[in-house]
Design brief:
1 helix; 0% strand
């Protein structure tokens, strides 16, 4: 039973981990873009 369940649990945790990493990278890139756009706007002014 445990040997049957283990790979499924492992796969779910890996998928969750990957999704968290992707969302973190996406949010970081959005923040980076917002900061660079803010600096560009300040330089224009």
């Amino acid at each position: 039973m445990i040997s049957y369940l283990h790979p499924v649990v492992l796969q779910e945790s890996i998928t969750c981990f990957i999704m968290q990493k992707i969302s973190l990278i996406v949010s970081d890139s959005y923040i980076y873009m917002a900061i660079t756009k803010g600096f560009a706007a300040m330089h224009v002014m």
